[in-house]
Design a protein that fits this description.
Blueprint: E1 3-8, H1 13-27, E2 31-36, H2 60-78, E3 81-84, H3 98-106, E4 114-120, H4 125-137, E5 143-147, H5 155-162, H6 168-174, E6 181-184, H7 187-198, H8 201-207, H9 212-217, E7 223-228
Helix pairs in contact: 1-7, 2-7
The structure holds zinc ion.
Residues 9-10, 13, 124, 127 line the site of zinc ion.
Length: 241
């Protein structure tokens, strides 16, 4: 059985960016495990960050719990394994210890056939952190990069996304431009993705999108994009997406 592990920076990135791919893989019999790196430390004492504070909780752990419960609902929509690593995002603890975080993540990669990490625009420090971790440590595992949604559709990144450009920071690490494959979701895949994304109601509201429901139902989430780091054969079930 082929297994893809997706390293998701936050409790929503894998779904926002890859839910269509994930469903297609599941339909083909590929196992998918989503490992969320900054799922929040349940023992954290203190108030929410300015971002998490938008939800109105007094304590950060209340927000972590709310975000996890949204994620749990989305995971059920997609029928995937999931892991929440107990690390807080950059708004709480920065700098972080990359080795400690990799040690915790790598436990969940022991049976992986490939690993996927964010691939652009890579403007958020937590996303960049996860991509660097994957790139430095993936070893013999094939490494895949995914376009980060909806951020690739922000006006400052949309042109590059449509031209299938590889962000400069990733190009430097990958040794050149990557070959991006575009997945256009079927109606059924899109509907399931809508349902999964809608589970993150509180997070979508925190993102501050006016009419976020339009974003959920609109063109942003109908197209996904992924690119392998060249040099390694993708295992059966992950090739020819
Ligand atoms: Zn994120």
């Amino acid at each position: 059985m082929t297994r893809l592990v997706v390293l998701s920076p936050h409790l929503d990135d894998a779904v926002l960016s890859l839910a269509g791919h994930i469903q297609r893989l599941r339909r083909k019999g590929t196992e998918v495990r989503i490992v969320t790196v900054f799922a929040g430390d349940p023992d954290w004492i203190g108030s929410p960050s300015s971002w998490d504070g938008k939800r109105g909780h007094d304590a950060a752990i209340e927000t972590f719990a709310a975000r996890r419960s949204e994620d749990l609902a989305a995971m059920a929509q997609l029928d995937v394994e999931y892991v929440w690593l107990p690390f807080t995002d950059a708004a709480y603890a920065n700098p972080r210890d990359p080795q400690a975080i990799w040690d915790a993540a790598s436990i969940h990669l022991h049976d992986a056939d490939a690993v996927a990490v964010p691939g652009g625009p890579l403007t958020h420090p937590d996303h960049e952190f996860v991509t660097t971790l994957g790139h430095v440590h993936h070893g013999d595992l094939p490494l895949l990069f995914f376009a980060e949604l909806p951020y690739s559709f922000r006006p400052s990144h949309l042109g590059g996304f449509l031209r299938r450009e590889t962000p400069p920071s990733l190009r430097a690490r990958a040794g050149g431009n990557l070959e991006w494959t575009t997945i256009r979701l079927t109606r059924a895949e899109h509907r399931t993705k809508q349902r999964a994304v809608a589970c993150y109601r509180g997070e979508l509201a925190a993102l501050g999108w006016r009419g976020w429901l339009d974003t959920v139902t609109g063109p942003v989430l109908r197209m996904e994009r992924i690119a392998p780091l060249p040099g390694k054969q993708l295992p059966e079930g992950l090739d020819g997406l």
